[in-house]
Amino acid sequence: MRPADLARATGAALAVARSVGLSADDAVVLHDSNKVALRLTPCEVLARVGEAAGHGTALELDRALALRDAGCPVGDVLPDLDPVVRTHDGFAVTLWVYYPPAAPELTPSAYADALARLHAGMRTLALPVPRWTDRVGEALTVIESPAESPALTDDDRTFLAGRMARLRAAVEQRGAPEQLLHGEPHRGNVLRTADGPRFIDFETLCVGPVAFDLAHVPDAACAHYPGLDPSLLAHCRQLVLAVVAAWRWQRGDAFPDRERWAHTFVRTLRQGPPWPSLDALTRSLARD
Question: Under CATH, which number does the domain 108-287 receive?
Fold first, then answer.
């Protein structure tokens, strides 16, 4: 979020927490993107805050409850409170259990095991979610429209649109089995807890090949995931980089330092293989 919006979102989270009787005097930013995750203190509660417009926050909450009930390793809503979306000052706020980090780093084997268990639980559900091709189509629309991505050069627009369309066709032609997916299971959406990793943020659920999810996670974790097709993973990694590039180029995107990220994603796709995972590229950008 932009600094002014982040300050307002933080104020909204604190106000909502106090309105339900929680002791909330301060907040620590845990993850900042188009939606922000905050640790509220001293009550030790996790608040997720996004714009109140639309139904994404309510949808995420409903999906989280369904996944929890299916035995998936997911972050849980705050007990003893109705699991509803609360609004304040134009922001939608949901309150969740805060899990103190149990270890300094998420090990590759634990990451892969948690993702495999998430996928196993998801296979028991039939939630109404889009197919992965719909998400790619939305990103392609952003790239192809100068009104939606005005800062994108004509050359980069042609390159990204062509690459995205070819990759979508290539993954389709593989005919890999498809199932319910998280959609964005990167580190920012994984909590390290005393009883293992737990996933959060379920607005991006979709149906697709598991390689689409694995394109977001570290190489070392992919090596521990059973039955992964390396060739399909390479296609999906490129596709995910192109999709994320589209969001960073989109007019009005509030991601911090989005222009540097947008240029880096295009440059990485132009440089060719080996294709980095989304995790590797974002960690590199965060260090620079």
Answer: 3.90.1200.10
The DSSP code sequence of 116-153 is: HHHHHHHTT------BHHHHHHHHHHHHH-TTTSTTS-
Q: What is the pTM of this model?
A: 0.90
Instruction: From residue 205, give the alpha-carbon distance in Å to each of 82, 88, 92, 138.
Output: 23, 26, 19, 14
- In the chain, where does the domain assigned CATH 3.30.200.20 lie? 3-97
Contacts of 283 (CB under 8 A, 6+ apart): 187
Determine the Cα–Cα distance for residues 91 and 13; give it in Å rounded to an integer. Answer: 8
pLDDT tens for 38-69 read 999 999 999 999 888 766 788 889 999 999 99
One-letter identity of residue 4: A
Strand pairing report for 91-97 and 86-88: antiparallel
Residue 197: which of 77, 111, 71, 116 has the closest Cα? Answer: 111
Distance between CA atoms of 16 and 47, rounded to whole angstroms? Answer: 9
User: Rounded to whole angstroms, how far apart are CA atoms 1 and 191?
Assistant: 21
Domain limits, CATH 3.90.1200.10, in the chain: 108-287
Range 3-97 classified under CATH 3.30.200.20? yes
CB contact at 8 A, 123 and 180: yes
Instruction: Note the pLDDT tens digit of each residue in 159-185.
Output: 999 999 999 999 999 999 999 999 999
Exposed e or buried b per residue across 88-118, where buried means at least 16 C-beta atoms within 10 angstroms of its C-beta = beebbbbbbebbeeeeeebebebbbbbbbbb
Q: Is the dihedral of CA 36, 156, 135, 112 positive or negative?
A: negative
CB atoms within 10 A of CB 233: 21
Distances from the Cα of 31 to the Cαs of 46, 87, 120, 174, 200, in angstroms?
Answer: 11, 20, 27, 35, 11
